[in-house]
Amino acid sequence: MSKRFSFLALAVLTLITSSQAQEKRGRIRDFGIQIGILPTGTNNAITDVAGVTVGQKTLIQGDKIRTGVTAILPHSGNIFQEKVPAAIYVGNGFGKLMGISQIEELGNIETPILLTNTLNAPKVADGLIDYMLSLPGNEQVRSVNSVVGETNDGGLNDIRGRHVSSKDVLEAIQAAKSGPVLEGNVGAGTGTECLGYKGGIGTASRKLPASRGGYTVGVLVQTNFGGVLQINGAPVGRELGNYYMQEPKEAHKVDGSCMIIIATDAPLSARNLERLAKRSYIAFGNVGSFSSNGSGDYSIAFSTNTKNRIPHQTDKPVFDQEDLGNDFMSPLFMAVWEATEEAILNSMFMATDMTGINGRTVKALPIQQTLNILKKYHALDYDKLPKAVQK
């Protein structure tokens, strides 16, 4: 091979590599992908539920620290003094969710919800307790049920180093804000993997019509699980040749976990919040997951409706709260399915390639190839397809 040819080949390879590295990322709706039929909230995020804020701290240091923490605050006040109704649904319990038993017993949460990596969960809980005890009004508090979820980012992160500190927890909480939420390789999603590609933090929301209550449902996910990727029914993972139990050589691990955080302003009891949380699991299957043996999959749902807040101390033996009737829950069930599915896909579309511990690289989902597959299966720009194809 001549030196000139070698140089040209190297230049072409460099251009191809550079083009791939610079592939435009975006949320699924930026590319014409639509999930379900309901409209989104203003930011298509969990923060579309009034009062909910999200803060994140991302740790990318050296060649092996790829982790972080994500904080979800149900309201801006003292959550311990004004608790909110909540419930948990366990899809597969191979996880280390902290605070679960008290939520199931009492039906409320009294701290922000924090997400991080598996081995950092106790340290993050410690930082969360420090924060709660420091709040004005909590000077006499002697018990705090900190809520910390996790997924294992050890494939890219030095998880044994337990690098998330109490300081990082405080910074994430203090950074919490409404509006758009950062997605992809951020916060607790910095080192996660999803369905054979880079996972991360994703979010979405749905707004019910006024005739169905006008309520908002918002979802935030931390994706770190495997399976066979599907989008709107299209077999994307199979077409890309990257899926669990692929022959002759398996492409990726299936174990991991997924945390699904659900917020709504609908006046729901803990019982109906649990029913809502269960429906998020439909989306989990729709994107191609089956909850493997080693996947810890949890949905936490809470209501921000101010009439249903639970005071820490009260002289009233009976609470006067509102509870949406069972017969009116179906629109909310649909909303949580759609928002969860879109949040999962947003986490993948917004993620980028990540190289971490031991030089291991996890590639992001190739967007243009994915769009070509969706076109092939008539799963893109669904509202613009001819009616004959829609049927």
UniProtKB/TrEMBL annotation:
Residues 1-21 form the signal peptide. Transmembrane segments: none annotated. SUPFAM superfamilies: DmpA/ArgJ-like (SSF56266). The keyword Signal applies. InterPro entries: ArgJ-like_dom_sf, Peptidase_S58_DmpA. Keywords: Signal. Belongs to the peptidase S58 family. This is P1 family peptidase. It comes from Sphingobacterium kyonggiense.
